[in-house]
Amino acid sequence: MNKKIRLSIIVPCFNEGKSIDLFYKGVKRHINDLDVNYELIFINDGSRDDTKERVELLHEQDPKVALIDFSRNFGKEAAMLAGLHFSKGEYVVIMDADLQHPPQLLKEMVDTLNLEPYDAVAAIRRNNKTKGKGDPLLRRIFSKNFYLFVNKMSDVDLKEGATDYRMMKRKVVNSLLAIKEYNRFSKGLFEWVGFKTKYIEYRDVERVAGKSSWSYFSLINYAIEGITSFSTVPLKFASLIGVLSAFVSFLYLAFVITDKVINGNDVSGWATIVSLILFLGGITLISLGVLGEYIGRIYNEVKRRPNYIINEHLTSNVNHEE
Ligand code: UDP
Ligand code: MG
């Protein structure tokens, strides 16, 4: 008997009740072209709508569908981690539930891993400039600068437009699972573990239903996560600015003293003092903030809390033939 590759499809879901069925149909339509045995692992990340019930229905009809139900919302990073942890396939792919990760690409991904010397295939999103399609302009500007900024500031090299839509061989998944850190920035971890990765492009599409759970505030937090996860450059900046301002202050002090002793000028500037206090105060507070970001993360790491808590787990039968 021809032994088929086993493929695990991991789908983090947060309030995706309206998308689940469409997603399931979309994947079904394309997966039959592939010569794989697959399982579909939906992670219900504390949704407040009927996501769980939808997946339970699918699970009853289709033994390839699994459900991992979290006790509350733990975030997409935690959901992806749980999916990787419970995946059984030799190949594993992570997909969004809103069909923004087109299932058409699955074939190319599987073929690449089967036939070419790659260990992972990552989808790169290209902006769709057609009016009304793809992400809003402000979001696009934010995301472009996000990659530039994180790359400049950190030790990993993120590809612009790289998404979490990736298919990986088991050894890549195992190395991701071996990373035990609590604050996970997967976009960076994927690059950090190495392995030969092929990048394929697709045009941005809008989510099929519901709305994105990202606010601009959470995007800024995500950027900070990306930088602090992979670099200590902000800390070095803080100390460098400290040294520079101390140096300039000494020069100025020398000037004030000579001016007084040699020229007999009294110290004049109220304005100088106020601006100095504000300037140094500002720098001090910013540096404290930078320190705080790192300390907060150390605090989270040392507590060693689990990344997620599972309420219920309905497993799949990955070997089930149609
Ligand atoms: N998601 C999740 N937990 C969260 C937020 C999002 O599992 O706390 C899932 C969501 O259901 C979707 C994927 O992560 O399948 C991407 O989320 P979203 O579409 O909101 O992000 P965007 O596509 O706008 O980047
Ligand atoms: Mg989306």
From TrEMBL:
Keywords of the record: Glycosyltransferase, Membrane, Transferase, Transmembrane, Transmembrane helix
InterPro entries cross-referenced by the UniProt entry: Glyco_trans_2-like (IPR001173), Glycosyltransferase_2 (IPR050256), Nucleotide-diphossugar_trans (IPR029044)
Domain of life: Bacteria
Protein name: Glycosil transferase protein
Upper taxonomic lineage: Bacteria, Bacillati, Mycoplasmatota, Mollicutes, Haloplasmatales
Keyword Membrane belongs to the record: yes
Enzyme Commission number: 2.4.1.214
Transmembrane segments: 237-257, 269-295
Sample GO molecular function, one term: glycoprotein 3-alpha-L-fucosyltransferase activity
Broad EC category: transferase
Pfam families in UniProt: Glycos_transf_2
PANTHER family for the chain: GLYCOSYLTRANSFERASE CSBB-RELATED (PTHR48090:SF8), UNDECAPRENYL-PHOSPHATE 4-DEOXY-4-FORMAMIDO-L-ARABINOSE TRANSFERASE-RELATED (PTHR48090)
Organism per entry: Haloplasma contractile SSD-17B
Occurrences of domain Glycosyltransferase 2-like (ranges): 8-175
Gene Ontology CC annotations of this record: plasma membrane
